[in-house]
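hey so i finally got around to running the thing on that chain from the lab meeting. sorry it took forever, my laptop kept dying and i had to restart like 3 times. anyway pasting the input first so we r on the same page abt which one it is
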Amino acid sequence: MAHRLSAHPEAILRTTDQKVRGSNPFKRTLFAYLFVISLPVIVALAVKFGTSGNSSGPTRFGSGTADLIGLATKGAANFTNQVALQRILIIGIYLALVLFSVAGLAFYLSVSTDVPLGAVGGAIGIIILSNILDAISGLGSIRNWLPTHYSFSWFDALSSSIDWSQMIRGAAYSVILSALFVSLAIIKFNKKDITS
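ok and heres what got predicted. didnt touch it at all, straight out
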């Protein structure tokens, strides 16, 4: 058996390469979106079905009054199941819209570089830098123009009454930024010589 494997290593590599290339990119993309959408679902469920936080007695699950991750300080409310599902849907749609700017940036960088991981690394690096700059209060109103400034506005959907202003501003900014990056990528790609 070892003789057969060592005699044909290129056949093994070819088979492995075909399996990797044959994987469905739609499934990977769907999995990535479902993962991103599941994050606010987990947070909302933790707030809704969290522990009671009653230190005088045994911990009871299902009361949802505990401040599990600091959301009560942001005004998180206890919802009925129907309202909770509506809020989860709002959060998921908002996160998908906010991530359009990251996708547009990565798309532009993928057209700008010949290294595939360079586009991904560049987009992630810029997003991390934007988060760091957003934490610096000395920048003042400049922070409002950073791509990640409104990324946590979905917390407003967890309050008893939704303040739509920050989410609308964040979604609009993200869609505009995404359209700008995609337009720049298309212009750059049309000028690129892909035949040589």
